[in-house]
Structures are given as C-alpha cells and as structure tokens.
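thread: overnight batch results

M.L. [08:02]
morning all. the overnight job finished for the chain we discussed friday. pasting input first so we're all looking at the same thing
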Amino acid sequence: MDTDFRRQAQQDMAKQLDASLLPIRQAFLSTLIQRVIRFEALKQDLEAGQDMATALSGVANLAHKMAGVAETLGFGEIGIFAAEVDRAITGGRIAGQGDTDIWHGIEDTLEQLLDAMEAQLDD
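M.L. [08:03]
and the structure it wrote out:
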C-alpha cells in the first residue's frame, strides 16, 4: 500500500512538473527557428573559412545554451547533439587544435543537431 501511494505521488508530481514546464517548452520551441537560422549562418562562415574562430565561438555558445535546457524540456536529441558540439569545440581548443580541424570534427554532429531541431519545427 505504501509503495502504491508513493508511486501515485510521484506520478502526480511528474504531471505537475510537466504542466509547469509547458510554457517554458513552448518558449523554447518559439525560438528554435531563430536558432536554426543562426547556426546555419555560422555554418556558412565555417564552410567558407571566414572568421572561423568567431564562428566556432558562436556555435559553441549557442550549443552550450541549448544543451542542458533542451534535455530538461524533453528534447533529448537536441540536448545530446548540442552538448557534443559544445564539448568538441571546447575540447579541441583546449587540446590546441586548429579551427579547421575543429570544424571538420563537429561538422557531422552539427548537421545532426540541425536535423533534430528542424524535426521539432516540422511537428
């Protein structure tokens, strides 16, 4: 009986949490298109080899901001890819890799992140 009560209490708390996160989740979704556009612009700079250090910093900052909050709000794939991009850029810089090498190391993961973001826009 005690276990059933705890289970029900946990389910009730989860529903309340879901309801309280709904406005934040909707706000996240409402900014997703602008984030996709920003990532795409930075990606174009990287592909063109233009101001790569600034573009990589922009990608890292945007990915870092998305990494934790996306997973918390139920967008696990976005959070995972964003965290991978952020870690790869930060780790590459710490290891002394050049910007071109870092870019080539994150290119596929950034594309997966963009695909995951765009999939949410399609839903």
